[in-house]
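FORM 7B: Structural annotation worksheet

SECTION A. Query
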Amino acid sequence: MPNILVIDDMPEILTANTSHFSALGYNMTAADNGAEAIARLNEKQYDCIVLDILMPDMDGYAVCQAARELTDAPIIFLSCLDQIDDKIRGLMTGGDAYMTKPYSLDELAAHVHAMIRRGGMGRTQKDAEFSIDRNNRIIQTSSKNVLLSQKEYELFILLYENPMKVFTKQELMERVWREDGMDTGAVAVYISKLRRKLDFAARHIGVIDNEYGTGYRLIPPETEGPV
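SECTION B. Predicted structure
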């Protein structure tokens, strides 16, 4: 099972995260400060790192920079800092994703799973049964492959890289189409197309769920069912 390193100076958060992920079958290591985290990274390799920012000895940005000298494992920042500058700094120092506290343990688990599954935000997912060709917008399994249009691909990647996050139709329109005055009904049409095209790869990707009256989200395979 994947090895996860969780770094946070708050004992209750370390306990909650390690207990939740252990119950899901992950091998967990906890560190409550930056120096201990770097020591753990020198001892072994991890499949994903969950990293707080505000810590007493060295902050998460410094830990992330040091970690990047030791590993290319995906790093998810998990912090109470919620300003856009904080998020940009986290990503620019080597992070792959950024979540803010308070948070859902199920959403964090979905992010960790997605990061491990594709080996980090900027990497192409590829294994014996499933791959995403990001340059050519092709979704492929061992039995079939599908070419997505540019907008279909952008919509899919936005949902895929933010598992369990609900996007309203307006948000999807602004993020994918980036045009004012367009009918948000186009989103529903594209979602319907994506569902049909990607149904063959559902056990690898998950399913696009319609949150009635709110928007859409991607539910990863291991979390399908009542949530």
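SECTION C. Observations
The radius of gyration is 18 Å. The chain has a mean pLDDT of 87.

SECTION D. Sign-off
Analyst initials: ____
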